[in-house]
Amino acid sequence: MRPDILNPLFAEVSALKGVGSAQVRQLARLKIARVIDLAFHLPTMMIERQSVERLDETLVGQPVIVPLTPARHDRGGPRSPLRVAAVDRGGQWVDLVYFGQTASWAQTRLPIGVEKRITGKLDRYGQKLQIAHPEVAAMDAGPPGQTREPVYPLTEGVTNRRMGQLVAEALGRVPALPEWIEPSVLARQGWAGFAESLAAAHRMERGRDRLAYDELLANQLALMLVRQRARSRKGRALPGTGQLADALRSRLPWPLTGAQTRVIGEILGDMAQAEPMLRLVQGDVGSGKTLVALFACLAAIESGAQAALLAPTEILARQHHATLIKLGADLGIRIALLTGRDKGKVREQLLADLAAGRINLLVGTHAIFQEAVDYHDLGLVVVDEQHRFGVAQRLTLAAKGRTPPHVLAMTATPIPRSLALTRFGEMDQSMIDERPPGRQPIETRVMGPERLEELIAGLARHVEGGGQAYWVCPLVEGSEDADEAAATTRAAFLKARLGEARVGLVHGQMKGPEKDAVMADFAAGRLALLVATTVIEVGVDVPNATLMIIEAAERFGLAQLHQLRGRVGRGSGLSRCLLLRGDELSETARSRLKLMRETNDGFRIAEEDLKLRGAGEILGTRQSGEEAFRFADPVRVQHYVGMARADARLLLDRDGGLDGARGQAARLLLYLFDRDAGVAMLRGG
Ligand code: ADP
Ligand code: MG
């Protein structure tokens, strides 16, 4: 239960003066629903208004406060705005322009011949000076009002002034709260209390730093509570026997890389303990994570438990299943596939086999964690492409099974360390920082649209020579139909050039079985070219495909380009990636494509991407629907992450139940930053 002291902040905005249903809808567009959302709605800048006696050219573009005398009201046609011609004390003319106001309004507010104090931004319109929608005050209304004013992100129907009022009301409702930050940290940073810092942040004074820190602290606390909870339930040691692992190792056509061996060791070390494993394996695309996952699964199976592997998409689940079946052939284990698509008798039989323990390893999409799916004895859960899943989903995973299972997460999106801690701080980290030997770097080139013909000729030669290739079409903003149309048109065009039978198409709107059939044809070499939208972004593995063409490459994020490029370069042949760019490129787009040309290093690309786009995009939090950070841009405040982590740890070491005075304060913090799932972790077993 949320502590009562926070109720005023968590009330709906409609509780505020003058906020009716229309305004509620307007504010909702800014994701403002509660009073606290308003209190956290920070300005983006301050405007400084100059109070002047006379207007001149040098003031154009600036906010001003100036005494003006209206001389004429001019209401053109029904569609044109109201114009009030006014003059300053030096005889300079300026038009005051209002859309949607009547002449009678002007007669009351701006009577002719009466000097008024006018506030607004001075613009030039053709030969004339003008001010659009200025505020009007009487000359004797006291000294000129605020000359400094915060500028808020706005939406139609809510003026900056109105937003300022709403925010002020919201700030008035912030109660005095006990301090949750470690006193020594507070003193060292010289930070004010929470409420004071929040008010200061609205004046664009120092204050935002503390809020960012608060948010990171809430985040770290929540992650640690998740970890504390997950590990408080005693799990089961799965030490394995090494029997299946040895059999697999002797069958592999190549030795494991040093990094694979090391990470497998870290994982088996965890699994040999009764405390449930919570480990994240990072490895660049093509570093061989699937095999590492399989060794973990074998240890579970050797110990008599079942393993489950969760993939973010159906295509990936199928591919993992096929790969694992191939690798695990004649090890005497049963590997099955379950996706949302399986229905009826087949599904029932599969569920029965799973419940009876006749299936050792289940691969699938999130369907494998639905209520109805009962495991005989689930010991290990592997989550592939972890960044696609949110914390909430990670939590439901850990709840399956009689005893909490070991959890192994894998991600191919290299994540800079500070980010890994903010996002996956509850997990231990392993890194596969080495690729299988003999891999050639992927040669990357950027081509302008004028070279399309040349590119297609090259593609035709590649295909003639028995090569396979991908052609990726971009997502068109805002419309899946449009993506499909673009990809379909491109596929038709390429079919006409390369031959109908050689070109396949997959996109997100296709039915599952259709998609599978195309993927299977491509994997088996029956298709030479696969035209696709980003559905093939993660994980797809066809080593014979050595050419990747990405159309309108400037529309993709860097990490995404890197992922896509990682679909080639998986065999020992030389691979190429051609980035087809549009006509007009921004400066950043240009430098991003240049970086892609220069490096194959996923970590370097991730760091740059982080700088360019911010954390939410990189982590794909959009996809997982997880709340991003309001204040703590993990790039800008990297140095606070470690501090917040230490602070959180100290607090939990002293008061793991958050029962003491500071613990209680920290609970408030968790609610304020919507990390109260962490509080729930404190209750129950
Ligand atoms: P990731 O999931 O990390 O992107 P995969 O697990 O799909 O990479 O592996 C990429 C390719 O490398 C696969 O074709 C796999 O069979 C191969 N591979 C994995 N480990 C090794 C190794 N030690 N030596 C050679 N090839 C390997
Ligand atoms: Mg993979």
Automatic annotation (TrEMBL):
Source superkingdom = Bacteria
Domain Helicase ATP-binding residue range list:
270-432
For this protein, the record's SMART domains field holds: DEXDc, HELICc
Q: Which GO terms describe its biological process?
A: DNA repair
Q: Which regions span the lipid bilayer? A: none
Supply the Gene3D superfamilies for this chain: P-loop containing nucleotide triphosphate hydrolases (3.40.50.300)
- One Pfam family linked to the record: DEAD
| Residue span, Helicase C-terminal domain | 451-611
Q: Does Magnesium show up as a keyword for this record?
A: no
Q: Which UniProt keywords apply?
A: ATP-binding, DNA damage, DNA repair, DNA-binding, Helicase, Hydrolase, Nucleotide-binding
InterPro entries named among the record's database cross-references: DEAD/DEAH_box_helicase_dom, Helicase_ATP-bd, Helicase_C-like, NA-bd_OB-fold, P-loop_NTPase, RecG/Mfd, RecG_dom3_C, RecG_wedge
Q: GO: which molecular function terms? A: ATP binding; DNA binding; DNA helicase activity; hydrolase activity
Q: What is this protein called in UniProt?
A: Probable DNA 3'-5' helicase RecG
